[in-house]
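From the methods appendix. Each design record in this collection lists the tokenized structure first, followed by the designed amino acid sequence. Records were kept in a plain field format so they could be parsed without special tools. The example shown here is representative of the layout used throughout.

RECORD:
FOLD TOKENS (541 positions):
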């Protein structure tokens, strides 16, 4: 069986604007023992021309350059013509998405030829927003109404769509498929391709674009399910995505139809059973294809995927793939399936805790697959006949087993050595940490003692200062009492001096008054003497 994985989940417009390109890839992983075929993905046709591919990285710069050149020419040379178109544009010519979904193709095409490019781009942008689905239930209801209008029409045939306007056709295809990529400005598909996609004659996956039914498959699924492509779509959910080289997809060994692992688990397509390759009376985990209803064994398929793809996986991818495998074999009842389930769970836990790195985990799971192959009942038989093994072959197998055991022992020894080194490093780090903590504790003890001595010295100083303060307070009180006593003495002396001064002053004033009195008495006596002398002289005269 050839493992062909096609990546085809269309990016939203806002994601496309950030990444710039749609990234798709095709990969072929052959399985030993079966003829190798070319990938049935029509990838050569996809890359034939820039107008027919949305996945070829080489064509994107050309498309963008053409669009930029066209926009530049429109701005520099056709300004007058654009203005005239805008001026002639009337509200009666306006159309809506619902008009496109329900009106006749020729009428809408004629109207759209008269509309300016800016208005048509607004229509496409509005539909991209609706398909984005971020607007809630209102937008979901609107796209449901549009799809119902389009899908209920009987006039939308390949013949009538030939006269449709290109933007009109892109909108109809986007509504019918629900894919925004048909509205992306950098994706340009031929009109015939868009028509074939609309009428379910070509795969709606832009990265695939195969004619339907793919590879001229005549099974009931490809014949009766509209738009189904067995090269890139799940036979259960009818969806496609970009996962590649992974256990997310399961391929049928017989009809080469593909199924999502989650869809197969959900619908019970993975279960226990007996296959043509299993030993009589033994059961193993099988995948039952919904397209052909035949079974394929899963253990060998998982082993082939891991052998071809595991070396290229990173840590997250390996963890994710181990999770897929553990979910596939969770319900396994055979010994090998249970061993694989527990091995995947153990590796996931070790990788999660950092015990095992990517390279060791990859080598471990690959060695485990080899061990399971050696433990297989078929490995003890010689092909189809079931006869006894020849001595030379037995020796060869024993040597292989011994070599495998030695390799496993080396892996285990390497793992134990790595664990021992890690444990030793942890112990050394712990010892260094203990020494650091002890040194810090000693330093803290010394610091505590030093602080204690400083506190005692400070307490002594405080006591001395308190004693000095008491002494100074005592002296201050004595000085205050002495000052009060001296003040009282001064007041007494001042009062006595004032009394002495008043007494001496009064005595002095009394002496002065006595002197002035004596002077006045003498003056009066003198005047009387003069007066008496004067009167005697007059008498004589």
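DESIGN:
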């Amino acid at each position: 069986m050839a493992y062909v994985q096609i990546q085809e989940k269309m990016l939203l417009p806002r994601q496309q604007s950030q990444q710039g390109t749609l990234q798709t890839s095709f990969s072929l992983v052959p399985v030993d023992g079966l003829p190798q075929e070319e990938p049935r993905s029509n990838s050569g046709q996809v890359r034939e021309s820039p107008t027919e591919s949305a996945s070829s990285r080489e064509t994107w710069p050309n498309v963008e350059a053409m669009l930029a050149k066209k926009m530049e020419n429109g701005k520099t040379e056709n300004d007058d013509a654009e203005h005239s178109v805008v001026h002639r544009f009337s509200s009666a010519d306006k159309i809506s998405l619902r008009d496109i979904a329900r009106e006749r193709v020729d009428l809408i095409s004629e109207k759209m030829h008269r509309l300016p490019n800016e208005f048509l781009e607004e229509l496409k942008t509005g539909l991209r927003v609706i398909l984005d689905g971020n607007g809630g239930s209102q937008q979901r209801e609107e796209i449901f109404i549009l799809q119902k209008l389009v899908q209920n029409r009987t006039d939308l045939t390949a013949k009538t769509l030939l006269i449709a306007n290109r933007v009109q056709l892109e909108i109809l295809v986007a509504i019918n498929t629900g894919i925004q990529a048909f509205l992306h400005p950098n994706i340009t598909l031929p009109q015939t391709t868009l028509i074939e996609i609309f009428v379910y004659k070509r795969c709606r996956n832009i990265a695939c674009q195969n004619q339907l039914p793919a590879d001229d498959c005549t099974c009931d699924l490809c014949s009766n399910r509209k738009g189904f492509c067995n090269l890139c779509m799940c036979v259960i959910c009818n969806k496609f995505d970009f996962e590649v080289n992974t256990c997310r997809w399961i391929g049928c060994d017989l009809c080469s139809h593909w199924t999502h692992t989650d869809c197969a688990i959900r619908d019970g397509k993975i279960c226990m059973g007996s296959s043509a390759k299993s030993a009589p009376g033994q059961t193993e985990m099988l995948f039952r294809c919904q397209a052909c209803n035949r079974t394929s064994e899963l253990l060998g398929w998982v082993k082939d995927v891991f052998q071809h793809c595991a070396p290229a996986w990173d840590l997250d991818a390996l963890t994710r793939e181990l999770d897929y495998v553990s979910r596939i074999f969770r319900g396994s009842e055979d010994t090998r399936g249970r061993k694989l389930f527990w091995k995947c769970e153990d590796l996931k836990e070790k990788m999660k805790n950092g015990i095992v790195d990517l390279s060791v985990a990859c080598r471990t799971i690959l060695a485990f697959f080899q061990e399971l192959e050696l433990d297989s009942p078929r490995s003890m038989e010689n092909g189809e006949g079931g006869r006894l093994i020849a001595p030379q072959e037995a020796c060869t197998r024993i040597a292989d087993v011994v070599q495998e055991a030695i390799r496993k022992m080396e892996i285990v020894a390497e793992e134990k050595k790595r664990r021992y080194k890690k444990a030793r490093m942890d112990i050394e780090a712990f010892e260094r940490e203990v020494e650091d903590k002890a040194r810090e504790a000693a330093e803290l003890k010394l610091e505590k003692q030093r602080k204690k001595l400083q506190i005692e010295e400070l307490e002594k100083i405080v006591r001395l200062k308190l004693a000095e303060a008491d002494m100074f307070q005592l002296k201050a009180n004595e000085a205050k009492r002495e000052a009060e006593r001296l003040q009282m003495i001064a007041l007494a002396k001042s009062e006595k001096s004032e009394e002495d001064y008043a007494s001496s002053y009064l005595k002095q004033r009394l002496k002065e008054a006595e002197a002035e009195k004596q002077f006045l008495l003498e003056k009066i006596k003198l005047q009387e003497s003069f007066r008496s002398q004067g009167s005697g002289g007059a008498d004589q005269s």
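APPENDIX NOTE: The beta strands are 3-6, 26-29, 249-251, 258-260, 270-273, 284-288, 295-297.
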